[in-house]
Design a protein that fits this description.
Enzyme class: oxidoreductase
Strand content: 15-25%
EC number: 1.2.1.8
Oligomer: single chain
GO molecular function: betaine-aldehyde dehydrogenase (NAD+) activity
Keywords: Metal-binding, NAD, Oxidation, Oxidoreductase, Potassium
InterPro entries: Ald_DH/histidinol_DH, Ald_DH_C, Ald_DH_CS_CYS, Ald_DH_CS_GLU, Ald_DH_N, Aldehyde_DH_dom, BADH
Distance between the termini: 77 Å
Number of strands: 20
Bound molecules: nicotinamide-adenine-dinucleotide, ligand L3577AWF
Length: about 475
């Protein structure tokens, strides 16, 4: 037991914890030490069946409530999450290794924001009245049914809530499968939803890797799948869902550009580049990992960046003075080390970092490469670790063209004092989520998602409602029916 509020079993099904030790054991490793802190079991077919049966039953009753009644439960869950922010944050730190300094503000807090936001919206979900000159039509916004959420490991609480909150607000039920790397936090969210008044079966959590995910997606009781994960997984999940014409949301990876012009406020630009590459030790999908810096300010940018990186405090993630944690797993650390080696091999200049820290756990120093060129592996592939690639450019058109030369399109950012240029550049960049003189802000009121290979659909904001509901159109004739015979 790592913490007194640690979940008490592997799964949460039909309003209660559930164990089935026939499932393959999955070790839960604390990234800061490498120690095993818990073991969960992958869901057996019996567990998956129980979860889907419970969800289908709960959904039909839940959909009959008014939106305001549903919203009240979500808002109560948001309040409980906020009251328990510290214990949820500690659990998130154990699950991911992210520093408590971060988890206290970015994880359960964002989950609470989502539950509160969609709880507030639930009562206002309506259709429209369409006058047709005598006859008329109306639309009704209906839930999809049972939705499946599949999560990545970087933000386990936030990802579960960003999917559950709009799904439940619209009258759906959910079966959520966390990443096998971070199985703990979603279980606590399920517990809190029950405490807040969600009926048994409305939000279920089952563990497992890809096999469990595929079993959920291919079940005929499932109407929609929302995945947060990598592009290769997205292809498989999208294909499986398409076979039965299921709705999808795909929140996938990226290799996002951050453009820094010579007229930018340098201090803010350096701060933005730090947030775009090193927060959560670089394990954020929307990170601006291709940092295009205008040649005239490149030296000043690199000098100030190197200076500010001296402020990194790597250490025990539970110590609130620590601001830089480990990679989530040994496997992820090895992947990132492989990319660092590739960067050196392909001729990028290592400015700082590039090494493991001399301590237990999966710590890698924040790493900056300069003189990176577009063809290098570290400029093309998502690394998902603390590795910044700095590329230089001469002018705006060149920077935009090179920024867009990628199959991804999750996010993009620009730092400039020229307001016209800021909007012109953002208008030309192919990305779903953009930032001007900022980076990586993710308020729940703003739609979040990507274009191209980075995804389909949007999370958060009113936009998410479109992805968790469908319209029924009803034509109403006010007079007699005229038929030709
Ligand atoms: N766009 C976003 O909002 C967003 C947010 C966070 C992370 N990500 C992306 O997630 C990736 C990192 O997370 P990861 O390593 O956990 O990703 P991953 O693709 O390896 O796994 C994601 C989830 O999919 C499951 N899965 C794997 N194979 C599956 C299959 N065949 N069928 C069904 N489910 C399957 C995994 O068990 C896990 O729960 C990065 O690419 C990152 O950019 C995207
Ligand atoms: O990791 C992707 C989602 C996200 C972006 N910012 C915070 N969370």
């Amino acid at each position: 037991m790592i913490y007194e509020t640690q979940p008490t079993a592997s799964h949460y099904v039909d309003g209660a914890y559930l164990e089935d030790t026939d499932g393959t054991p999955i070790p839960v490793i604390y990234a800061a030490t490498g120690a095993r802190i818990a073991t969960v079991h992958a869901a057996t077919p019996a567990v998956i069946d129980r979860a889907l049966t419970a969800a289908a039953r709960a959904q039909s009753d839940w959909a009959r409530l008014s939106g305001r009644e549903r919203g009240r439960v979500l808002i109560r869950a948001a309040q409980i999450l906020r009251e328990r922010n510290r214990e949820m944050s500690v659990l998130e730190t154990f699950d991911t290794g992210k520093p408590l300094q971060e988890t206290l503000v970015a994880d359960a807090a964002s989950a609470a924001d989502a539950l509160e936001y969609f709880g507030g919206l639930a009562g206002s979900l309506t259709g429209e009245h369409i006058p047709l000159g005598g006859d008329w039509a109306y639309t009704m916004r209906e839930p999809l049914g049972v939705c499946v959420g599949i999560g990545a490991w970087n933000y386990p609480t936030q990802i579960a809530a960003w999917k559950a909150a709009p799904a439940l607000a619209c009258g759906n039920a959910m079966v959520f499968k966390p990443s096998e790397v971070t199985p703990l936090c979603a279980l606590k969210l399920a517990e809190i939803l029950t405490e807040a008044g969600a009926p048994a079966g409305l939000f279920n959590v089952v563990q497992g890797a890809g096999e469990a995910g595929q079993a959920l997606i291919s079940d005929p009781r499932v109407a929609k799948v929302s995945l947060t994960g990598s592009v290769p997984t997205g292809r498989k999940v999208y294909a499986a869902a398409a076979a039965d014409m299921k709705h999808v949301t795909m929140e996938l990876g990226g290799k996002s550009p951050l453009l820094i012009f010579e007229d930018a406020d340098l201090e803010n630009a350096v701060g933005g580049a730090i947030l775009a590459n090193f927060y959560s030790s670089g394990q954020i999908c929307s990170n601006g990992t291709r940092v295009f810096v205008q040649k005239s300010v490149k030296q000043a940018f690199l000098a100030r960046l190197t200076e500010r990186l001296k402020g990194v405090v790597m250490g025990d993630p539970l110590d609130e003075a620590t601001n830089f944690g480990p990679m989530v797993s040994e496997a992820q650390m090895r992947i990132v080390e492989g990319y660092i080696a590739k960067g050196v091999e392909e001729g990028a200049r290592l400015v700082t970092g590039g090494k493991r820290a001399a301590r237990d756990g999966f710590f890698l120093a924040p790493t900056v490469f300069a003189d990176v060129t577009d063809g290098m592996t570290i400029a093309r592939e998502e690394i998902f670790g603390p590795v910044m690639a700095v590329l230089d450019f001469e002018d705006e058109d060149e920077a935009v063209a090179r920024a867009n030369a990628t199959e991804f399109g999750l996010a993009a950012g620009v730092f400039t004092r020229d307001i016209s240029r800021a909007h012109r550049v953002i208008g030309a960049l192919k990305a779903g989520t953009c930032f001007i003189n900022s980076y990586n802000d993710a308020p729940v009121e703003m739609p979040f998602g990507g274009v191209g290979m980075s995804g389909v659909g949007r999370e958060n904001a009113k936009a998410a409602i479109e992805h968790y509901s469908q319209l029924k159109s009803v034509y109403v004739r006010m007079g007699d029916v005229e038929a030709p015979y």
